[in-house]
Amino acid sequence: MTVQRILIVSGTHGNEINPVWAVKQFNRKENSLNNSIEYEYIIGNPAAYEKGCRYIDVDLNRSFKKSENFDQYKNSFYETNRANFLVNEFGIDGSKPCQIAIDLHTTTANMGTSIVMYGRRSKDFCLAALLQNKFGLPIYLHEKDKAQTGFLVEAWPCGLVIEIGAVAQNFYDQNIINRFSLIISSLREEIDKLKNKLIELPKELVVHVHQGSIDYPRDEKGDIDAIIHPERINQDWKMIKKGDPLFLDSQEIIHKYQRDQLIWPVFIGEVAYKEKKIAMSYTKKEVIFSKKQWVQEFESF
Question: Which of 47, 87, 207, 254 gets the most CB atoms within 10 Å of its CB?
Answer without folding.
Answer: 207
